[in-house]
Amino acid sequence: MSFPTERPRRLRRSEALRSFVRETHLTTKGFIYPMFVCPGTKVRNEVSSMPGVFQQSVDQLLEECREVESLGIPGVILFGLPEHKDARGSEAVVATGVVQRAIEAIKKAKLNLLVITDVCLCEYTDHGHCGVVKDGEVQNEASVEILAEEALSHARAGADIVAPSDMMDGRVGAIRRKLDGAGFAEIAILSYAAKYCSGFYGPFREAAQSAPQFGDRRSNQMDPANAREALKEVRLDLEEGADMVMVKPALPYLDVIRRVRDAFDVPVAAYNVSGEYAMVKAAARNGWLDERRVTLEVLTSISRAGADIILTYHAKDAARWQKAC
Questions:
Q1: Phi and psi based region of residue 42 (left: phi greater than 0; alpha: psi -120 to 50; beta: remaining)
Q2: What pLDDT is attached to residue 210?
Q3: Structural domains for the chain
Q4: What is the Cα–Cα distance from 256 to 194, expressed in whole angstroms?
Q5: What is the pLDDT of residues 193-216, one digit of tens each?
Q6: Given 195, 232, 281, 316, which residue is catalytic?
Q7: Is the pLDDT assigned to residue 95 strictly greater than 70?
Q8: Residue 138 and residue 164: Cα distance in Å, rounded?
Q9: pLDDT at 1
Q10: Which of 8, 41, 98, 255, CA to CA, is 20 to 30 A from 156?
Q11: How far apart are CA 126 and CA 124, in angstroms?
């Protein structure tokens, strides 16, 4: 009986060998932990569809940020739930807004965390869309003007990175000009460059109280069938001044992450979104899968596809599991 010259199984015989030749090494260094900040004090409400994730007031959020820091996770991204909503999302830009106060609190505490802020209007508008609406349509230019002011308010509060997620045309350029003109040329932009109109955002809309009150977001978010268009969106955002780019969601778009990674020599982020998180949590709670094993497999797949940065609600659990290894 003849045997093959090459025997790949030789390097799989033990964990020591497997670890020694492993191609992708998942670490906490690329994790970003998403957090939801709301008005009040001593508020900590668990999101029913996202076990372990909370809507919380600034004082409570600050305590969780200390935990995030202790786990070696380098940064957080903040989403705001305002006290009042209106048609223009006015509270998004005020200096006393919940996100602005959270930024200031984290910086005052001198935590070793990068503070990233989501720049969008969906959480702040009473209609739940990502911009100003007129005659049932989201208005691009009017929305971009407010988004640029929102980014500037975050920079003034002390944000390290602003992350526009609205998918309006030209918003990265408008934000870059607004920041530079106000003396914040050092603030980086992480653009949600390829954000798809996805069914995986459902739990987030509960967490951020941002579900559209009519229609949907297909006119501004990308068609799930398109991949070449993602490269165009990334190129345009980089030309406008983005420093980093993001693909969202992650799991259904691993091919897009890889294409962006191969085409552009910039940091690439991927958002392991709420629906992806909720599916794992629900299946684990029903005993249908091993949560630790599946979570680490999911995050490794995103890293293997080419993401340098992973925004994930699993960040704290994954950091703990890696510390335990």
A1: left
A2: 64
A3: 24-324 (3.20.20.70)
A4: 9
A5: 999 999 998 887 787 666 666 556
A6: 195
A7: yes
A8: 16
A9: 62
A10: 41
A11: 7
138, 97 Cβ separation under 8 angstroms: no
Q: Which residue's structure tokens are 């900040």? A: 37
- Summarised one tens digit per residue, pLDDT across range 171-197 is 999 999 999 999 999 999 999 999 999
Marked catalytic residue, from 85, 248, 281, 316: 248
pTM higher than 0.90: yes
Listed in sequence order, the residues at least 6 apart from 73 whose beta carbon sits closer than 8 Å to its beta carbon are 28, 31, 32, 33, 113, 315, 316, 319
Q: What is the C-alpha to C-alpha distance for residues 325 and 322, in angstroms, rounded to an integer? A: 5
Q: Which residues does residue 35 pair with via DSSP β-bridges, in sequence order?
A: 78
Segment 219-226 long-range contacts (CB within 8 Å, at least 24 positions apart): 219/137, 219/138, 220/130, 220/131, 220/138, 220/166, 220/167, 220/168, 221/167, 221/195, 221/196, 221/197, 222/167, 222/194, 222/195, 222/196, 222/197, 223/196, 223/197, 224/196, 224/197, 224/198, 224/252
What's the CA gap between 299 and 311, in Å, rounded?
10
Active site residue 195: yes
Looking at the predicted structure, is the pLDDT value of residue 128 above 80? no
Answer yes or no: are the C-beta atoms of 74 and 29 closer than 8 Å: yes
244 touches 268 (CB < 8 A):
yes
Q: What is the pLDDT of residue 213?
A: 62
